[in-house]
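Budget justification note: compute hours in this period were largely spent on complex prediction jobs such as the one shown. Inputs:
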Amino acid sequence: MVIESAPDFETQDLLINVGPQHPSTHGVFRMILEVDGEIVKDLIPHIGYLHRGAEKLCENNDFRQGVGYMDRTEYLASHNAELSYVMAVEALAELEVPERAQWIRMILCELNRLSSHFMFLGAFGVDVGVFGTPFIYAWREREALIDLFEEISGDRMMYAYFRAGGLAWEVPGNFEERVREVLVSTRQGMKDFDNLLTRNEIFLARTKNVGIISAEDAIELGMSGPTLRASGVPLDIRKSEPYMYYDQIDFEVPIGTNGDVFDRYLVRLKEMEQSVSIIEQCLERLNDGPIMPERMPRMLRLPEGQEVYIRTEAPRGEYGIYLVSKGGNKPWRLKVRSACLSNLQALRKMSVGQYVADAIIILGSIDIVLSEVDR
Amino acid sequence: MNNGIYGIEIAWLDAVIRLHIIVGLMTVVVMGLIYVERKVLARFQQRLGPTRTGPAGLLQSVADGLKLVGKEDLRPRNADPWTFELAPYMVFIPVFLGFVIVPFAFGMQVRILELGLIYFVATSSLGIIGWVMAGWGSDNRYAMIGGMRAAAQGISYELPLVLSLISVAMVSQSFNLNDIVLSQSTYPNLLWQPLVLVIFIIAGLAELNRTPFDIPVGESEVVGGPFVEYSGIRWSFFFLAEYAALFIMGLIFAAVFMGGWAWPLGEELGRGWQILLVTVKTSLFIFLIFWIRASVPRLRIDQLMAFSWKILLPLTFVQVLINGAVLVYDAPLWILTITGLVGIVVLVRLIERAVRPSPAVNSEFVSVGNEGAS
Amino acid sequence: MRGIVKSLATTMSTFIRGPVTRGYPSKHRELPERDRAFPLLLWDKDIDEPFCTGCHACERACPVECMTVIMKDNPNHESQDGTSKRRKIVDEFWIDYGRCMRCNICVEVCNFEAIAMNNTWSGHETSVYDRADLVMDLPQLMAQSKSDEIQEWVAD
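Corresponding output:
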């Protein structure tokens, strides 16, 4: 009545800068939100705050030194990062990895998937607004896992444990008991998270139907990993192009239906349960044997002019390494296909039209690790 | 009606002495509450909380206070001088005013007012003005948004809070807090009004700006809250006001719902037992608030408002009507208990419907088995 | 509401479980044998000289180029009526702990098992006030091995 005759209001969209330092611990990431009232109209992400030139540095390092750099491109799931790299080198050098080393690699990669997903659950809980409880639960479980890693490789986060051809050194004698011990406490931690968050009505109200991305959009934007599977696309590299011995292991791949934030959370939670089952199956099949092939040259030299692209299922998606060799012990070009960077492209599409408070949750649900986005 | 304290019969001197006692008690209790909150939250999260400042970290609040006092007193250049300066006081003073009517034990309150409960509701509403003043006076668009949100939340949840207190007053047939406490010597009011208890807790959380309703203070996720431009001792006023409000809400809860100092055996056993009762009941309420903070995520502002207006308020109205019907027709009071419990079930159902589709997790989830490649 | 009650029950159960804090730095937990802090040089107790011959193998293998090695003729060699079989011995050795990325490659390439990663707490508690103090020279690198405080682990 009165509103039609009133002149048009001159409103201006607010520009909110969610700066490089913000309380949600995702790393140094900056996004500029253009906001009309409460609704996000546009989102401009700025990355590159953590760029360290890892790919270029690897051109000057041989294939044993490069493993340390690959660790640091994805510090939460270092074993998976190292895995792609050493698989690429092995493919070019035509090395045959002994069976025991493969099984141990699988166990370590799945354990790392567990610890990475715990980190996601912790940070996500803080984003949603629970004061700190999920974070501490996550850290309690990660502590057990990281202690195990320290006993094996010596370091809590940057393992540098995989080598082209197998492993750097043998695992300690009580490896199997320690892994089973850690799995017991991990199960308890997952149950705690499940009870704390999954059926909580407020959590559901915050995360259901928020940040939806359809399957077609997700495939077009090149997403991968749990964020893709939450939209309903049944793609898991461990099933579609099995590497190591994943085709001998029995496990399921959880798929979401809606593609919203809740599905991404639940897909990761269920993936963790599957990882536990994979680890147990691998422990049963673990046998004795060497961990490096018999004839290993002292300095690994690759044939000239070869290139390979190897992809593996890292906890965040498809982590690929593209290696071009120039005949020598250093690569000509090493390119990291980062899962987080591709997933981050969908952030704008997911957030436009949502509330401002949801933009943070959507960012948290993609589960980015800035060192992988920026390298 | 009001006995002089220490036998002093001069009214104004008596009131001044009581007020001083209240002020002293408040300050100590608030600092203690800050420490207790940190320890209790830490224990929920399986960690230790403050341990280093003083024995078992007891001097942590003192250390925080010293730090805040030592900070530079910043003021934005274009901040409106009157609103900016006065906002902390406008938030803090109404809470102090609320202490006038709270009964700690028989004969231990500042004044017995005939309309004590109404007085409490009136003063607690004044605090909202302080938030808006803080937001507007800061000359910062994010602060203003935060202040407006806080005001909207405060006003929306004021209604269920007031109506729930009125329901209890109807059952106790008085607004005088002393009379309400005395009327509960045999049965505490929460037996007759279980639904109102739940609504009071929820509305109280919202009035205190506590999780899950702490959007104004948790706003620092994206933008600063209304206190973004305050520093040092001015900011600590808001902080202390929050804990003082928590304390007073606990005391009102103890008095109105659980029988204050009178139940179970208050009148016979004397002052010490009465104070113990009040302490225990207030601590229960405060512990519950901390427990909720450690467990529950935060609601978004639109969900918050919808919850108050669409779910809480109608239920409170219905409860008041039923109270009225039962009291007018002199029906036995256990009818209220039954309707209250039915009301809780209705509330639970309404909440679950609001977050539809309900999380039937297994049926929504499809797992790809070993059929192989996709 | 039931989900919220479940969350409350979960936090209450952790309340009862008690803190999991370890209490660092009042308590130091036991480090595993393979723990990898920063590299240290080893001291040969039988002949009273370092194992290191200054052969530059670790210096070349280091990905971040954090070491500088200078070798000299060993005055203690048998040819000069000494007790040692090492012709050359390390003269100066600097490791910049600020650059080291603790990748363990120097330990792997060493032919004389002269360098090992510190697996005691002192390797993890190396904070200094000036970055230049992080460049460790030969006496500092050998101090722990000389005083028998190190329990090194070198992979077979």
